[in-house]
Structure formats: structure tokens, C-alpha cells
Design a protein that fits this description.
It contains 10 helices and 12 strands. β9 and β10 form a beta hairpin. The model has no long low-confidence stretch (mean pLDDT about 95). Bound molecules: D-aspartic acid (DAS).
Length: about 325
Amino acid sequence: MHSKKIFGQFLILACAALVSIAHAQKLPNVMILATGGTIAGTGASSTTTVGYTAAKIGVEALIDAVPELKKVANVKGEQVFQIASENMNNDYWLKLSKRVNTLLAQSDVDGIVITHGTDTIEETAYFLDLTVHSKKPVVIVGSMRPSTAISADGPINLYNAVLLAGSQEAIGKGVLVTLNDQINAAREVTKTNTSTLDTFKTPELGFLGYIQGSKPFFYRQSTRKHTVDSEFDISKLDVLPQVDIVYGYANMNPIALNAFVAAGAKIVRASRVGQGIVARNGEADDDKLDFVVSDTLNAQKARILLMLALTKTSDTKEIQKIFYSY
Ligand code: DAS
């Protein structure tokens, strides 16, 4: 009788194990690449929402703080680097993009989440949008409150990012940025507020969709080239062309601009307002001055596209075509 009971218990455990294996096999495999930022930040107290230190806790702690991740994906973490994103640079971008491309080429990786500081999330997202050659989802996530704060937004943002990166709906949409239950495209998303949770917006062209009840809902997608349609291959590059930004204003001092031009800088004319089309030969004689216009890209996004375009050509007519197709 006793052995029958043990066998029965064994049978139940074996079935439970099989069910959990089957469940795990059904879930998508999502890699979480951590780079730092406020989402990994810590403050002196639970009410510290400014004056905290970014890039303090590691990827395993981020994952452990959200046990619900295991319900939506099989997650693995990797600390690629640990910085406040105002310190982001081309070397970090090249390292991150190469790592993402390598992982997405693996059949056991269905999607990638990148945890990142919010100050340059929009730039990293666009750089990856132009250099990652896969349809698999790449979702960049950050937070506006440090992990130690009351109602920290990092955990729910990370949960949303993982379920988005493991979703069928996000396949082929290009690199995505999600915070605050909203889904933005890398090309147009921008940080619009220094501290509020709804800071990331695509002011005029709009969100791609929302995440609600653990499900992504898409209502539109980008019409411009990205990821698998991008011609930019950085796999063999260790350095990127130097491209800088000069901010225009009334009574502007031309010293900075003249210094950059003297150093050989090429010019793309963008707008500081960030929205709308910068029309060719509108505010300047672009043909005569041999300028390129940025179309609807703001200056920080135009800088990234120009940097990658210069790895292919220095012909301004070719570069203008690139700005009209990406
Ligand atoms: N220091 C900023 C950064 O790392 C804080 C943040 O993540 O919001 O971008």
C-alpha cells in the first residue's frame, strides 16, 4: 500500500514537471541586456526621485524584482555595461549593436529587451533601429523613478518590455521603446519631460500602440526603412565618423559652427522644434550651400543617420536620398 502511495506521489510530481517543461517550452526566450540608467538606480530613501544614483543595481536584481516575468517569458540576463546614459558613446553603441545581432542570430533567442537610461534612450534606439538586422523584437526600456522609490515604474516597464519582446505582434516593427504602457517607434520617439512618467512621446506622428492587460496593441507602424531593410552594417566597424550638433539661436555666435566646418564637418540642417518637415531650400539655399536637410528627424536623430550614412558615402545627394528613405 505504502509503495503505491509513493508511486502515486511520484506520478503527480512527474506530471507537474512535464507540465512546467511544456509551459516553459511554450513561452518565448527573451534576453535582457542591462546597460544602467535610472531603472537600475538607487536613492537615499523611498521618496528620493531626484538626486539618486543611476546605474547601481545589476541585471539579476532587476529580474529578481519582477518574478512575474517568468509567466510571460523564459528570461536570461546579461550586464553589457553599467552607465548613466548621458555617458553613452559610439563605443558602447557598437558593442551593444554587435551583441544584439549575435544573440538574435541564435535560434534560442526570440526577442531582446535592453534596460537603459532615459536621457539617450531615443538615440540608442535609433542607432539599433538602423544597425540591427533581424525582424525579431528589440525593446528598449527605462524608468523615470529609481528602483528604491515608492511606485517605482521600472518593474512594470520591464514586465511590459519582456512581454512585448516575446510577442508575435512586435515582430518586424523595428526597435521599440516602451515606458508608461505606451509603445513608441525608435525613429520618432523623444523624451519630452525631465521627470514625469509619461515623458516619452512621438508628439505629432504618434505612438505605435499600447500595452494593456499584459497584451500589446498596435495601431500603426513606421513607413521608413529599418532593421532588416537597413543598408548599414557596423559588424566590422570599430570607429564611427565624428558628427556634432550646433544649436541655433538669436544672435548666434558662429565660432562653434565655423570650428566644426574648419575641422571638416559636413552639414545636415535639422530643426530645434523637433516636429515637422525641414523643407529643402526653405530657410536656406541648401542646393547652393550643398546642405542635406533632416526631413522630420530632430538633431540628435539626424546626427545618428548622418554618422551611418558617412560610413557608406560622402556624396551629399546620396546622403539626402538616405534621409528621405530612413
Ligand atoms: N541619468 C539618467 C540616465 O541614465 C537617468 C535616467 O535613466 O533617467 O539616462
